[in-house]
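The data layer described in this paper is built around a simple, fixed record for each protein. We quote a single record here, exactly as it is kept in our systems:
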Amino acid sequence: MSGRAEDRGNDLRSERTVDRRDTVGSHGASGSLGASGSCGTLVPHPSLPSPWAPAIDPDAASLRPWTEDPHPPVIWSVAGTDSGGGAGLSADTRAAAAMGVHLCPVVAAVTAQHSLGVSAVFPLDAAQIRAQLSALRQDLPPRVIKTGLLASAAAADALLAQVGDASLVVDPVLGATAGSASGSSGGSTGRVAFCDDALLDAYRHQLLPRAALITPNRREAERLLGVASGQHPVPELAAMLRGLGARAVCVTGGDDGSQVDGLAMDWLDSRLATGWIAMPRLVPRKGEPLHHHGSGCTFATAAAAALARGFAVPDAVILAKMLTWTALRDGHAAGAGSGPLRPDRRFVDDPRALPVMGFDDETSPDRATLTRWREVLSPTTRRSAPFAKGLYAITDRAERIAALAVSGHFEHVQLRVKRGDGADALTDDALRAAIREAVRDMAGRSATLWINDHWQLALDEGARAFHLGQEDWASLDATAREELQQRRSRHGVRLGLSSHSLWELCRARGVAPDYIACGPLWATTTKDMPWLPQGLAQLRWWSWMAGVPVVGIGGVLTDRQWRAGVAAGASAMCLVRAAEEMVERGRLG
């Protein structure tokens, strides 16, 4: 909880730039300030079912900002005070306010510190901690509990007795090195004891097995595991921590000196998604200290708040990365040393704050991948291929391609043929024949032909634009991914990717596709999926944040729906059954 030099989104601070809305139009797919400016702060909503996620009207054009929630979710933070106001419960309170949740601060320890370091830590008596928790349990039961500086095993025991059915987010504050030149906390000499052997044992055997998410930096992960510094790469550390019982682990990397590629990268290991999460490594103004005091507290509290709002763990970590990065960017001086972060509710619709995410097999991203991530995260240096705005028809019948193309209604036409299984399985020859027919019928037409899934067969048949689901991209080995990326850069091959959640949006961004599909917008019976309907408000947020054209898909059956999707910022709207009906009507509505 002291000012450790970890950055849960980044370790460094940037010079202030112009107001974010001055540049966001060139970053967002819609290229217009109207998407956000017309309805205030844009917020996403959970993409998977959760008892804490209220039902969303998919026709609603916007959602209430989280900070205006009349009944905000309750979370507890069991942590320490910072007499300098930078980290600990001070940082937790600021992060919770930016997330629009109600935080109950439970004091586990009192520290004597300022911006230059910590001089003393005073663990509270277990009875005092139990009294705080018992009082809260009677009136303010939490959805999520976040821990920071516990300072004693007795604090862990008191907490675990009151966890109940709340989710637990553990930020393992294990120590602070004194007088660190990097800006980590500590007094002027020696070491300040934050965690003795008894508390370390409690972390390993009591807290981690109960945790929904833990958020150590690399040094903390190594100490929890009892391994030497640098003995294991970060992905292995995360897997080992999950082996101790934690359901999800995010090893933060803002303070990792080995990351010298201009990116601050955290490694997430969870049931739903695993991979690197990257943002630009921010730099301070010349001659100023690094205002990162409380970055770890901010990250963990933001993740806990997002979980309390019903977001799945990977999405909660994405939101925590966004909040921490913007708060670090806007951090300020308070004293002679490292100042605190400054969280602001507007982080949630700042496109510059949206990270990229890798896939689980990209444990050591190659130079080409890192370069692509940096380009995606620096939109002023990126040049995207033109993408025609309009309607996007999807059919599984190659013989219908020509009719859809000549109707004049569609700028994009996709052939989506599935292989099937058993007696219905299609052979490669049958797939080739269907693709060959589609390519032939689209020759010389202005609409773009996209082939779903079968990109290698389609390349052989002359197709030059492909759509892949994320599971299809994930199933490709590194060689196949590199081949497709090389085809794109050298031969103009185009690629679209699906996304259904915040983390899938960030993964799609990392591939730098020509468009990202957002869906399902409305409930659909054409595909069995676990995802909640995204709705127009989510589509609006996607279109504002993605940095590439966004295509809306799923349950679009009427002219009213696709027109509403375009108004929400989508560059194209997909029609499946409705496409054939439109051709039969011979008009747009």
Observations:
- The chain has a mean pLDDT of 88.
- Residues 213 and 248 are 5 Å apart (CA to CA).
- The first helix runs from residue 20 to 27.
- The chain is about 35% helix and 15% strand.
